[in-house]
Amino acid sequence: MILMLIASLIFIVMLIKIVDRLKNEQYYKLMEQFPSYPAYPLIGNLNMLFGSLKDLLKNLEKIMSLDDRVFFWLGPIPVLFLKKHDDIVAVSNLTQYRDWMGFGDQWFGTGILTAKYESWKVSRRAFAPAFTTEMMSKYVDTFKKGSLALVETFKPAALSGEIIDVWEDVIRINIDTIVENTIGIALEGVGQEGKDFSNSLHEAMPSVTKQVITPWLQPRLIYNAYLKLTGRSKIIDQFRALPTKILKDKLNDYKIAQNSSLEHVPSSKAIIDQLIKGGLLESSFTEIRMRDELIHVFITAIESTGLNLCFLMLMLAIHQDVQQKVYEEIEEIFKDNDTPTTDHLFNGLKYTEQCIKETSRRFTHAIITTRRTHKECILKDGVIIPPNTFIMPLIHVANQDPDVYENPQKWDPEHFSEQAIKNRPKNSFMSFGHGPRSCIGIRYAMVTVKTSIAYLLRDYHLTTNIKEVTDEDLISDLSIRSKLGYPIKFSRREQIENNNTIRN
Length: 504
Fold this sequence. Notes:
Blueprint: H1 2-23, H2 25-33, H3 56-63, E1 69-74, E2 77-82, H4 85-94, H5 105-108, H6 117-127, H7 133-153, H8 155-160, E3 163-165, H9 167-183, H10 192-213, H11 220-229, H12 232-258, H13 271-280, H14 287-318, H15 320-334, H16 342-347, H17 350-362, E4 371-372, E5 377-378, E6 384-385, E7 390-393, H18 395-399, H19 418-423, H20 442-459, E8 460-463, E9 474-476, E10 480-482, E11 487-492, H21 493-503
Parallel strand pairs: 2-7
Antiparallel strand pairs: 1-2, 3-11, 4-7, 5-6, 8-11, 9-10
């Protein structure tokens, strides 16, 4: 009986391997073309990613130590990992298909970040009017309002002299800003849903990452059961409540105001109004689709700009010489203006912009993106990637490439000096993507952070008890975060200047 059971198990395993071989014939041929690791049934190579999220970056870098291109089995899903910028640029240019294989759909739905090509084109058309130069200039007042709120928030810490972690305050005010720019009213106007969204936002990224790297959570039915058993399905409901409420209220206003005629829709600077105007012109833009688009706006604007600002504040607090240079540049534009103009924020503050870009490079907010080839893709050296291949460019690893950036582990704004940019390959900065599916909100993120740091440094001098942030100090889900937190000590500028005057 035992022998029969063992023989049956061996037969089942062999049958699974044969079926898998037939089903994935093209990928096994691909394995002959690219370096790969021994794979196991069902889990593939995911044993190499097991463990805490704290180790994810380290594990990815270890995997890519094999080669610049690595064929990898993400459980039963075959993918090609890429880490060199020229490969990533080629793939980004040659394929516009992004496919997250259903990961994260329960949280984020299907919006501009994860939509497949045809759907993405519709999303892009709907969003485009919201990010024109003219529309962007209308958001600046809200950026300034949020920046002044940050200054006010940190006053108690400046008075007490204590070191505080700025993360929660930055994210809270960042949510206020994006909500006001999105719907045209302050966050307090949306009630409990706003608070629930803020509280549930940080459950989403780790949960999705866990699904990606855990083979038994990859099937949708099992992951749905996991979400219910762990209570995360209720958190998803809270997470979606805010965009659902916003959209429902806005669509109701539209029905009343326009009486089914776009010609009578009032002009507005709110992103949602631009989205609805564009969406109503697209037959595929259902109410659920619009809600998902709002979710994507929220998570990208809040996460990317929030993380960038927190890391930037920390880096300026560590690198006092850089902070002084940024402060002097800010003071130069403030000397003749009580507040910086739109032109200053869009086209000025060049050194500050170098610091922001360097922060995005060193602490990449989206460590991985995805592509799926819809046709044959030929890389620079003639290597052919066949159609229907999943590709995962490792953006963070590419941003730390010593062949592109001198001393890449060091945070150094000179990486984005004019001379440094001229000396390295074109399009080597990967943080906001490349090609047709690059980030549509890059200017929005840049101006948000510029405005915040300008107002903060004008009022405060930043210091910290951290000497440096290394890769050992980073944790990652889909974004990179600091295990050390973002501890900052705020000192009022006028107090420092008075003390310096007394010493002199």
